[in-house]
Design a protein that fits this description.
NMB0513-like, mainly alpha, 56% helix, globular, single chain, 3-stranded antiparallel sheet
Amino acid sequence: MNKKLKIEILYFATDIKDLFATYKDKMSYDIKDTNLKNNFCSFLEELLEDGSIRLSSYTDGMGIPLNGTSKEQVQKLKDIWPTLEDAQAIWPEDPWYYLEWLWWDITCTIDLVDLPNIDIYEKA
């Protein structure tokens, strides 16, 4: 992805939910698009490799930085990402709303360590 678009997506991201929502909107994805999850995860891998973000696990309430390659770190997010069936069981009224918004706020234990570093894209 080009640097200008990365900056646009990262500019207002304070957490992974913001990053997901902005990515989804900028890339014109619908929450029901089956490619969204994998493409967003590939984008996260790219950001990790660039050094613009760092991920942390908040499983125990305290952030513990994730280790491993960018692919291994993002796999941890994929491992906990709910399926549509999970969302239907938890939020039957609107499972897509759960997947798009509530899961990120309530259940997702992986988040950004700090604000994204967009300076690396502006300097290059």
